[in-house]
Amino acid sequence: MKQFYGRKVIITGAGNGLGRLLALAFAARGADVIVTDLNYVSAEKVAAEILDIGRQAWAYALDIADLEAISSFKQQIHRDIGKIDALVNNAAIVFGGAFEMMPLDKHLLTQQVNNIGLMAITHTFFTDLLESPDSHIVNIASASGYIGLPYGSSYAASKWAVIGLSESIRLELAERGFEQVGVTTVCSGYLTSGMFEGIKPPALLANLSPEKVVDKIMEAIERNQPFVKEPLTVKSVDLLRAALSQKWWDKAAKALGISTSMNQWKGNTR
Q: Does the keyword section mention Iron (predicted)?
């Protein structure tokens, strides 16, 4: 996306944390932001912050797990605002615990929000993005989409799915000649605030400042980069996986604390 000014962007899960910072970053570059969150009051507060800096903003309550709500949301956006130019899929949930100890409904809800809901809202607004002269999709995945996450298995599975969807859509758009539509997939380690606040990060994978990640995301959008991988350790995963046998990769993951970082953490709630 070469031009932000006047572009209309939807950001899911924008009521706090990384989503809020992304909403403010888009607004600072001149975009008009549609702030969505499960909690309407939180979305309204972020929209007010954007209005204060002189850009247009709208707040909507949206449950990304509700497919009918997503369909109705599109109709409302087209009626109230018009077509969009960018979509940032940030909304997500995570629960922690041993696989069999976590209730099945929590595993399924994680997939519904992080994977199915993301796919649904992308599909719902896809025509808008194809018709825009300069558009972008940002999908917030995770480093766990590359390396797995013991005690957070369904979360990691959902993020593996996000990476696969993003890359497939990106390649399909290029094949179909829609070069004006960029796709960026964000794979970061644990952030210092938000869903993973309070977690003990693995060695060499220290908690990241969300502000730093936002800067990298905005830069990637401007340059149409397919991935944001932070910190450096995440950037090295592909090389390490290729260089090490499975046995030695598993040993490295255990030694670095990747295999145990979630075992005392219970996750967030909706």
A: no
Tell whether 2 is covered by a domain. no
Question: In angstroms, rounded to a whole number, what is the distance separating the alpha carbons of residues 31 and 38?
Answer: 22
Structural domain harbouring 74: 8-256
**Cα separation of 38 and 69, whole Å?**
11
Q: Which of 158, 143, 53 is nearest to 110 (CA)?
A: 158
Residue 266 lies in a domain: no
Letter for the amino acid at 249?
A: W
Of these residues, 40, 146, 151, 155, which one is catalytic? 155
Give 223-232 pLDDT, tens digit per residue.
Answer: 999 999 987 7
Q: How far apart are CA 144 and CA 92, in angstroms?
A: 14
Contact 89, 137 (CB under 8 A): yes
Query: How do residues 45-59 score in pLDDT, each as one tens digit?
Result: 999 999 999 999 999
- Distance (Å, rounded) from C-alpha 157 to C-alpha 141? 10
Q: What DSSP designation does 102 have?
A: S
Q: End-to-end alpha-carbon separation of the chain, Å?
A: 32
Alpha-carbon distances of 79 from 59, 72, 86, 134, 185, rounded to whole Å: 15, 11, 17, 22, 30
Using an 8 Å Cβ cutoff, are 95 and 154 in contact? Answer: yes
155 in catalytic set: yes
Contact between 85 and 129 under an 8 Å Cβ cutoff? The reply is yes
Sequence-ordered list of residues with C-beta below 8 angstroms from that of 107, at least 6 positions apart, any chain: 95, 153, 154
Is the pLDDT reported for residue 145 higher than 70?
yes
Return the CATH number at 185. Answer: 3.40.50.720
Angle between the 153-176 and 104-111 helix axes, to the nearest 10 degrees?
20
The answer, yes or no, to whether the previous bond of 201 is cis (omega within 30 of 0) is: no
Q: How many domains does the chain have?
A: 1
